[in-house]
Design goal:
alpha+beta; four-stranded antiparallel β-sheet
């Protein structure tokens, strides 16, 4: 049986010490500290801390004994980590051909032909992608590249943190140095079945496709194909997002200009609201983020009493939050809006008495047309005027100012 070797290039992008780096993102003053995130055990720590032998699942008391008083201990903030993850996945989906999230802090991205498209060699492109992710998401990543997802994943132990590794398609010697325990989906019980037959990935491949499929398990034969350079493994992709986000950086125009910042925030909103409608979501929670000149992040949340996709309501919430939390004494470098607590309204039951424009399908149709026009001619040159839309919604909903 002949297998077709993959012609694609997959990048496995993995955040370095994700939880710890998210905490540093919130408070850059702890950047040079020994940072530990956890409660009774260590959930994450930065690489400066890992150098002392502290790692995930280390008991907190043991970490304290090792570091004495020289540490910064923080409880986990999973809501914030999810928001940063959402921003990362959004960025990757917009800057690569296709992504398959693998966990909260890692994803597989199809980058086939992108280096050629940008007239760059592969290594230069990967370094640029790594740098761009850090400049836009503010968390460091390591990137490994190969022709299949599993091959890219197994190199994830190499060159961390802030590292890159490009498979040279001649991995025989390297495979001999890598244990099968680093291959995803080969659990401890499965490793025990093969402990007398193979010690490393090279031995695993030498067993052969048909031996694995007949004597062990079908998934293992798929792994054999991936490790041999044949695409055979699809990561289950979640189609429903926990949150969606948009952001704007203006590093060259760091400012405390109230009107400028509000305009940037509303531009974020226009993009994000379009995504909300096109994906058939309603939201119940609005978050706004500001990042100051010193790269410190300020986060504010507002939870609505009901799920909504009402543009006027959401825009008013954002304007009011800005009015309350804007501080003219602070110089800002970026803004960010997140909609979370989402609900899928794809199967909305239409009410014959419902106002025409407020029907989700009709609203989606309008934004779909606008999106197609913007993509064809010039991105987001066409949008609803804020005042007109506000008045239009008010009249339709019977709201008087």
């Amino acid at each position: 049986m002949k297998f077709n070797t993959s012609k694609k290039l997959w990048a496995h992008i993995d955040c370095d010490s994700f939880f710890a780096e998210c905490e540093i993102l919130k408070n850059p003053k702890i950047k040079n500290d020994f940072v530990i995130v956890g409660d009774e055990i260590v959930l994450a720590c930065n690489y400066k801390t890992k150098a002392f032998g502290i790692k995930t699942w280390t008991p907190i008391w043991q970490a304290r004994d090792i570091l004495k008083w020289k540490w910064t201990f923080l409880s986990s903030d999973h809501d914030f980590y999810s928001l940063v993850s959402s921003k990362l996945m959004t960025y990757l989906s917009e800057n690569t051909y296709y992504i398959e999230p693998f966990s909260i802090d890692e994803a597989f991205c199809d980058i086939s032909w992108l280096p050629e498209l940008l007239n760059m060699d592969l290594e230069a492109y990967i370094l640029k992608l790594q740098r761009d992710i850090f400049n836009n998401i503010w968390v460091p990543v390591s990137i490994w590249v190969s022709t299949t997802k599993i091959k890219a994943k197994i190199f994830s132990k190499l060159n961390k943190p802030k590292g890159i590794f490009i498979d040279t398609w001649n991995s025989k010697d390297l495979y001999k140095s890598l244990p099968i325990s680093i291959v995803p989906f080969i659990w401890k019980s499965m490793q025990d079945k093969l402990k007398y037959k193979c010690e490393n990935i090279y031995d695993f491949i030498s067993l052969g496709y048909w031996y694995l499929k007949k004597n062990i398990w079908k998934t293992w034969s798929d792994l054999w194909l991936e490790l041999s350079g044949v695409s055979a493994f699809a990561i289950k992709k979640t189609h429903f997002s926990k949150s969606i986000s948009r952001w704007r950086s203006f590093n060259k125009n760091i400012t405390n200009d109230r009107d400028f910042l509000l305009k940037e925030l509303i531009l974020n909103f226009n993009y994000l609201y379009e995504e909300l409608v096109l994906k058939n979501y309603e939201t119940k929670k609005v978050s706004i983020f500001f990042r100051n000149k010193e790269k410190q992040t300020f986060i504010f949340h507002y939870t609505l009493p009901i799920f909504t996709t009402d543009r006027k309501v959401l825009l008013e919430v954002i304007k009011n939050m800005f009015k309350i939390y804007f501080d003219s004494r602070i110089l800002y470098r970026s803004t960010w809006i997140v909609f979370s607590l989402l609900k899928d309204i794809s199967f909305h039951q239409t009410n014959i008495f419902e106002k025409t424009f407020l029907k989700p399908n009709n609203k989606k149709e309008i934004y779909t047309i606008l999106n197609e026009i913007n993509l064809k001619y010039d991105n987001h040159k066409i949008a609803f005027g804020m005042d007109l839309v506000g008045k239009w919604f008010s009249s339709k909903l019977g709201i008087r100012k």
